[in-house]
Protein 1
Amino acid sequence: MKPMLVGFGTFGRTVRGLHFHWARRFVKSVMLASLATVAASSSAAVTTPTTTATAVSRIAFEQTTHDFGVVKRGETVKHSFVYTNTGTETLEVLAVKPGCGCTSAGTWEREVAPGKTGSIPLQFNSTGFSGNVTKSVTVTFKDTAQSNMVLFLKAKVWTPIEITPATVLFQYGEGSTNVETRTVRIINNLETPLTLDPPQVSNPSFKAALKTITAGKEFSLEISTAPPMPSSTFTAQIILKTSSPEMPTLTIHSTGIQRASVTYSPTRLLLPANPLTSNLKLGMTIQSHDTSALALSDPSCTIPGVTVDIREMQAGRLFYVSAAFPAGFTPKAGETPELTVRTSHPKFPMIKVPIAVMGAAATTPAALTPVKASVGPVNTPTRPAFPPIPPQSTH
């Protein structure tokens, strides 16, 4: 009986072990199934967001440049730029701005529905133009991708008689006795030969002489000063009568401007407000507009330790004056330092240029206003009378 009991006990323990093993697997399976069910339920409960397209407007021009080809001078030509709204929202054309008074815009469609087209009518007045011309027009619209676009109008303006240039300018020094000459070219584009009468000059300070280059086709008009010249700015008209009914009169405008015999630029030298971390070199140009050669000497600066040099760029005419400031230099409050140069000109023996600090308060005008020497500063804000020379720095 005992062996049987022992065997039964072993078997019983084995059965109990199997029960535990399968029970554990069963519980694990149930838990996994429950989790999967919960996850599936959660996924089903979440609504997937849908992407909706944003309504936008888009402008597309058939062309952005139009060439009129050859246009007779004085003629007004027109062209309409066609565009399409390729977007999904109404397109608003806000503004059409020509870049010149010779170009104007008509009435355009300010709102264009999606898929529809509109047009911008433009016109160009060729009066006063000659040769190749390009004009621009800026169109502003409500487009999220691009808010404006530039349209171009081109033309080759034909004129019966070309005048190049139509305006001449003379600049001369005080008391100058030099005779200066400008040449104006006159070309006949007509098939019939052209004849010109002698020029009529409205101001005796100018003289004009007509020369024939090619009979009936090409001429040159030599316009010259006739010293002594006026001390103030003046203008004159040179008028030529022609044999052409299309342009019976030609008019060339001439202007004379007197400059000081000696000029300098800039009218002041500017230093940074903070102490210099390295050597700094500032420069200025001095130019003579007189008939006699100019000589400069004795360059100096009222600031101790600053060295001033003169470089002659064009003998007797153009000079470059540089001032070298040492590293560590600090402008002192209340000082009005100057750079000075002596000249050989009897009317302008000394040039004085103030040295100012960047951002200096307006309460120190002495440092900002050029000293009134008998020399005039250059008054050429957009086009200097001589090539600028860049300042040099030394380290």
Protein 2
Amino acid sequence: MWLLQKWGKYTMAGTEAYELGDLATAEDMWSKALAEAEKFGEKDTRLATSLSNLAELYIRQNRFKEAETLSKRALTIRQKLCSSDHPDVALSLNNLALFYCSQGLFSEAEPLYQAALAIDEKALSPDDPALGTDLDNLANVLRKQGKYAQAEPLFQRALSIYEKSLPSAHLHIGRTLSNLALLYQQKGELAEAEALYKRAAEVYEKNTDRCHQFQAASLNNLALLYQKQGRFEEAEPLLKRAVELQEPALGPDHPDVAISLHNLAELYAEIGRRDEAQSLYKRVFAIREKNGLFDFDPQRQQAIWS
């Protein structure tokens, strides 16, 4: 009984820290939970849960090889313990697909997201938020491959599920609004995109202690939309706000901070503020060097969290 209590305590503490963006504490707690879960053995699904939690965190930390190993082990455990159409199997498929997305391997991720959705369509109620997550995940990987016609109705269905089943200020609603906005932005439907980004911002502002990751991504994307329209004075404060959100939560040397700094540097370069741009470019280079990201590509890196 005490073993179960410790696992649950560590798992809950790790989840709370992760949602707050405190990745160091989340890693510590989830690592302890995994140590406890290993004692249960591979015939207990809690081991798969702990493996999946750490895998997701490692993706956020760019520790991709470790994330892949844990994701595949979690999937193997769940496939042995559950029927092939069990929602726990869908969860592991989603997590492994997330790893492939983080590597830019969208064609490998797509069938995994499709398989997860097929399982949950049969196992869950039509308004279950987990089904909304499946739809949002699949839509996002389709968007990243330019399959906009396929992605749009999936985003809209996910949003409908969330709005029926979750509070109006829930983060899932904000994230899907942002994803759908990005789709419209990429299609060149900028007015529609701007309206959705603003709706997402209203959600994020009610959750500022929990959603810096998604809020920063949304702010960056809206800033890029304004920049494309020549609305530089409106773009600059959004990029500065993104940095302000990320630095306290992630630390000044996190790769996600480098994305926002790079975008701000690009803005300054475009409007002729070259000294400020150069200073930011130097800082971006220092961050990527510190993190071993010598092939750093801001657009590819942003794919992890947008």
Protein 3
Amino acid sequence: MRRDQLVIPRVSVVIPTYNYARYVPEAIDSVLAQSFEELEIIVVDDGSTDKTAEVLRAFGGQLRVIRQERRGLSAARNTGIRAARGQYLAFLDSDDLWLPEKVSLQVARLDAEPEVGLVYAETLLFDDSTPATLTPHSYWASHPSGKILPWLVRQNVIPSPTPMVRRELFERVGLFDETLSACEDWDMWIRIGRVCEIAYVNRVLAKYRQHRENMSLDSDRLMMNGLRVLEKAFSAPDPSRELHGLRRTVFSRWYADFGLGRFHKGRYAQARRDLIRAVTLDPRLLFYRNTAAVLSICLLGSAAARKLRALKRAMGRHDVSTWASKSAPIGSKSTHSTGVMTARAESGAAEGE
């Protein structure tokens, strides 16, 4: 890696962090281990109060550290973008990891395909409690290439540790939306998807850490920010009419997924409200997963729903909560079917982010 500050790097790596002193050294080491040398590392410390500053000092001149008052993940990323000097920008949250060939493979793709503005890749999800268990992101989402805007509004298909973006795109679409406290990356990828092609590298190039802190995002916050992202997406001019006819389907799926997730958590009144909204927007949602069955239970009232689930468990059969299935939100690093791994709790990766 070139450490001469007079040499303009080809790639700028932006790592936002907040109170992740225990994780950020491993994230930085994974960037230092890249086979590609023409890069700079910019760590934005978003007001950490733990030992983050101390652990960052240990890296000396191998990275640039920018400290700011606590402003949130989007603002931290934007600070890094403004400071970046590279032709291409890549983002890594401070609790995630890159594999050594990540940057070189993505640079080669961007160099070879000028019509492509963003390149992403496969990611493995792992849990601190069971680090040997790895789940590919492709288990949760398809990974299309090309003009993928219709895909993006249905689901955030881009794993958060993997995008590399042409710098000039931020001049065209703007910076991360600092008014969003979740789903801010999903919003950005949608905006980029409007103006260029997006390419997928079919190799595992990153590892996505799941742990207690980043599982704490409440579903209400994720839902409200996701709805704002969708409102922005469908309110923007669409001269190509790529999104024509998708609005009702996308919004109804969003409500249905959250309704099923809330049912799983025992929040029956909210689940009933969300599922009614879903099927009102699109009656076909009654045939989506187990929406009809779950809604029927919720319509009986919270007390009846609790009794039915208790009876199901007592009978030794699968818990009705499985009806929420794999698409239910699992926390700030969400596997939500419409917002895969988009939001991170503001208490985490800078969040931390």
Protein 4
Amino acid sequence: MSSLEKIDRRLVEEAALAGYEYGVQVADKKLIEEAIERFLFLRDSGVDKSDRDRWSLTLSSAYAQLAAMSSTTEAPQVELSTQGGMGQDLAASEAALSDSETVPVQPTIGSSSSTTLEKAVMVHREALSRLARETVPLEWAKMHHVLGDALWELGERENGTARLEEAVASYQEALKERRREIAPLEWATTQTSLGKAFAAIGRREQEPSNLENAVRCYREALKERTRERVPLLWARTQMNLGNAFLGLARHEAGILRLEDAIATFREVLKEFTRDRAPLEWARTQMNLGNALLQLGRREGNPERINDAIGAYQAALKERTRERVPVNWAATSMNLANALVELGVQQRDANKLEEAIEVYGTALSGIKEETHPRLHELILKNRSNAQNEFEKLSKQA
């Protein structure tokens, strides 16, 4: 390579890295995409294998960054559960918290970000084919972990469990080198992500063994993710553990798992306070309400239902219509479901009337064309509440 070519290449490298770093700093996807184009050129024109491998690793990190930005900037997508009782609940607890430093909403399926994720998977697999585990074991493990994250994101967007199972395999590969005695916090991070993938498969297949696996992973992670050491990561892992308990409760007739979920969510609230993390606090209140409502139904205990109502009302202090309209509508619907359950248990027509009004308010905040499943569920639950009110009125 001539001196001029070396100078030109160095300028391309400097421009690519500077553009990428600035793009990350200001969260500009276009700048990162432009940097990726330069990284591709630098990889493909590398002077030797070491140089090509170096740019492959840089490229994979850039794709992972772009994929994370794509998933966290899209509109939230709610996930519906099929719980028994007077009304079907919207299970905000169904979505595991990501292991990143931000708490993403579940992404709406979008072709651009899905394409980015596909590219990230391809690039990571290509890099892993060049990366020797024996030479750089921790970098090899990190690459498997990030590959697992991309596969998990794709799995959340697709039907079936194939991608999620690939994510499980990738995280398990990472754990071969990310051992607790060598890299305890990285080990805990991968255990948490593995639990997240197991939980997603368990929800998708309605099969409890994968949820048990998730519980096991989260408990392992919490051995290093202590509240004293990493309080926010501790809280997020506890939240995921509570969600797994709640998922298992749907497969069991007793109340032990529900009590475990309630205790766990209350632990989370010690760290996710309203002042410190208002939306995480509200999400925890929503999950706590879901667990209390299920327990109140299972026990036929109005006191538990009242506790659930209190939790939903707390969540709505931060989940406002102006701030997060879909989450506001979902939480309002679950509040109405709890009011219906209380009205039926106590034969209180006033509670049923209040529930019908809350359903109507929730409907006013969402559009059928943008959120058809949630809209349909609120309508169905309101109709059930109206039927219960009519039955109670006739018996009066």
